[in-house]
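User: hey, got a sec? need Deoxyribose-phosphate aldolase folded
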Amino acid sequence: MRYPLLLLLSGILFSGCQPSNPAQRVVDQAIEAHGGRAYDRLTMEFDFRDKHYIVQKNGGAFRYERVQTDSTGAEIKDILTNTEAYRTRNGQRQNVPDTTMDKYKYSVNSVAYFVLLPQPLNDPAVQKEYLGEVTIKGKPYHKIKVTFGAEGGGKDHDDVFVYWFGRDDSSLDYLAYLYYVDETGLRFREVINRQKVGGIVVQDYRNYAPADSALAVREENLLKLDALFEAGQLKVLSTIEKKNVRVQ
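Assistant: Yep! Here you go:
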C-alpha cells in the first residue's frame, strides 16, 4: 500500500509546481507531445534545399552544422555552437567577415529553430502570452504569442511569432511570424506532413503570405492571419520539406 501513497504525494507535489501562466502550460504540454526528454540529447540529420544539416543537443550545449558543396567541388561547412560560429572549406577554417558570418549564423540557427519546435519556446529569452482559444478548420486551438527579450534573443529579437496548439492533442499545427531582419514581412505556416523519428516529431510546412500585398506589416495583422487563412486570403509561397531525416 505504500506505492499508491508515494505516487499520490508525487502527484500533489508535481501539480503544486505547475506554472500558473496558461501560455507556459500549453507550451510545456506541446513539448512533451512532440518529444519531451528526447530533445535533451539528440543528433538529428536531414537534407533541406540541397544542403545537409546536423543538429546536435546535449543538455544546454548545442552544435548546428550546415554542409554543402561549392561550384569547385569543395565541401563547405557552417558551424554554430554555444560559443562560436565559423566556416570551413575542406576542413580548413576560413577568414569570413563578421557581417557575412552573421548571415550564415542566422540562416543556420533559423533552420535549427524551426525543426526543433516547439522545444525552443522554453529558451530563457522567450516571452509567452496566452491569446485565448480559436478554431481553425473546425479544430480548437490555444493561440500563443511569442516575443523575445533583447538579452539572449539574438539579432532577430524584435520578431513576433504566433503559435496554434491543438487544445485536445497539443500538436503544433500552425505558426505565423512578423520578421524584421534584412527585410520585413508576414508569414503563416501550415503543417502538411508529420513524422516521428527517434522520439521527435518532425514537421513539414506549407508557407503562406497575405494575398493582399498592401497589407501593412504590423502586429495587429499578424494576429489575424489565422482568420485570413480561414477566409482563403493567403497565398502559397513555398513548401518547407526536410528529407532523409535521421535522429539518434
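Quick note: Residues 21-247 form a domain with the outer membrane lipoprotein receptor (LolB), chain A fold (CATH 2.50.20). Let me know if you need anything else on Deoxyribose-phosphate aldolase.
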